[in-house]
Structure formats: C-alpha cells, structure tokens
Amino acid sequence: MSARSAHLLAGLLASAGVTHFAAPKPYDALVPEFLPGRPRTWTQVSGAAEIALAAALVVPATRRPAALLAAGLFVAVFPANVKMAYDWRHRRPALKAAAYGRLPVQIPLVLWALRVASDAAADRA
Prior knowledge:
The chain has helices at 2-22, 25-28, 39-57, 60-76, 78-87, 93-124. By secondary structure, the protein is an all-alpha fold. The chain has one domain (2-124). Helix 1 (2-22) packs across helix 6 and helix 4 (60-76) packs antiparallel against helix 6. The longest helix is centred in the last third of the chain and has 32 residues, at 93-124. It is globular, with a radius of gyration of 15 Å. It starts with a helix and ends with a helix. The model has no long low-confidence stretch (mean pLDDT 95). Keywords: Membrane, Transmembrane, Transmembrane helix. The chain crosses the membrane at residues 66-86.
C-alpha cells in the first residue's frame, strides 16, 4: 500500500508539474509579488520541481527524501494559495469558494507526503 500511495502522490505532482508548462498563465498570476524575478520563472521552477519530485517518488531509494521535499514544497506554495484567495475575493461565489477551498487542502497534502516519507523509511528498515 505504501508504494501505491507514493505512486499516487507522484501522479498528482507530475500532473501539476506538466500543467505549469502547458498552461502557465494561471500559475504566473499566483506568484506573490514579494518574490524576485519574473513570475514565469517561478512557474517553471515550481513545475520542474514537481516533475522531479514525482520521478523521485517512484524510485524506492529516493522516495523518502522526495516525499519530505514534497511536503516542503506544499508548504512553500501556500503563499500562492493565499494570494489566489485574496485576488479572487470579489469573483463569483463558486470561484471564490474554490480559491478559499484550496487553503485547507494544503494540510492533507503535507500530511500525505509525510506519511509517504514515513512509510518509505519503514520499508527500508
């Protein structure tokens, strides 16, 4: 079951990473202004990180560090979700609900990645 969970997390990250390149404009809009450089650079870097983490999650030898880094990535992108909620505060109720709904979703994502890391450590013991 632990490998399946890691593969599912890898699929989520790979899918998200690919969309950063296939449709980058929505991600560009989420980059907080306090970050230096161009938003597109941050979109591409975060997309590449998601793809790299996805690849590392499917390899048992790199699963634990990849899962820990994925947990850190989920925490690191939280300011983008806050920015989206703020920017979308005057949109239609359904869109506003989606933006606000993303905020608490980070918690189970972080916990999921930490669980994959824990399972990977147990599998290697």
